[in-house]
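Dear colleague,

Thank you for sharing your sequence with our group. We've completed the structure prediction you requested, and as agreed, I am returning the results in plain text so they can be pasted directly into your records. Please verify that the sequence below matches your submission; if there's any discrepancy, let me know and we will rerun it promptly.
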Amino acid sequence: MPTVTPSDQAQDAPVDVPGRGLTLQPFRGVRYDPAAVGDLAAVTSPPYDVLDADAVLALESNESHNVVRLILPRDEECGTESRYEHAASTLQRWLNEGVLRADELPGLYVYEQARDGAVLQRGLLGNVGLRDPSERIILPHEDVMAGPVADRLELMRAAQANVEPILLMYDGAHGPTEAVLARLAATEPLVVARTQDGLTHRLWQLSETADLAEVAADLADRQALIADGHHRYAAYRALQAERDLTNGAGPWDSGLALLVDLRAHPPYVGAIHRAVAGLTLDEALSAAPGLGPMFAAERVDVPSAQAAAAALEPGEILLLDGRPGSEQLRGVRVTVADPAAVEAVIARDQPAQWRHLDTAVLHRVLLDHLWSVPEDRVTYHHDVAGAVRSAERTAGLVVLLAPVTVESVLALAAGGVRMPRKSTSFGPKPRTGLVLRTFDTD
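Please find the predicted structure tokens below.
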């Protein structure tokens, strides 16, 4: 497996400047008081960008203090406040009421996710020092969209907080940090929460000086890959840029992150599917007869969209008619028939590995070149059912993709190349709400 190590960095990258490596700083985490809310599973949430409107309503109705009211406040609940002002005032009210409390001592937090007793992921929550991508310390692997970055930036400005972590992966080779985590995980946790998806979440605070020093020394020469949270990381850096300009150094120079050793806990990488509003399957095919000559199009019957997506291989794109009214979805499996013609449409300033990505072919050739679909008609879905529901609501097209490999992601990121936006879905994703970070409690 390709690794993310200092040897992969560009020749002009500063790799050995003291204090410029990967840093994860202790902080006073803000956590729900179990005595005030009872079941922690009921007040936590999946990350904001995997939730649709139905999921938000379900979480709100489940518990009045669910963190979804901070990460995705609905206009109907905000009264005269903006969504961001409402999130900020709700956070402050919960702090004043003791629903949320800051820990007395700073530390890092060991966070573990397990299923049926088997650990799926264990990592460290802390304040990661922000780095420009050119430094090759924190490596993005996807492009971002301006809208979601602006949305998360406004939330941080108003709340003066990071309400959910990003997910970072690094090649720790089962090193000293993982040993520290395993040792602490053998003790009694601070909290345990069991969520409806069958996962058990456990949390410990790491505050011993010797342990913190060992972790800091181990991470100093590492790189980390942004596995999940590119838009939040871009918002972190945007806030840093504007605050450093007017206020100088401060809490905005770091951001809440979960750091996981991918050798110790290999990630799951899934696809992110699309729904295209107002474009039917017939219209997609008629835009270029049979999608030829660049593509081969094979009509298929799809009794189960979920099963069809699971069977996809890299290089295959499945188009489904999202219009309701049929028990069996009509579909077309699309593959590249003329690679030279497809590559002629895609920018040649990208490496061949990028030009062959399914998401590059989908966006540059199908959506932009053949169908002329504007960005605001495309929605992104981490699950197949969500893509189908969205297409049904908008009489549109479902686009299902196969996942890319971890090796491809790492190879591109190590070379400084970003994949098209929303190309990957790393998991398991950290649960939002177990630990928050406010700027005034660091």
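Summary note from our side: The first strand starts at residue 24 and ends at 25.

Kind regards,
the structure core
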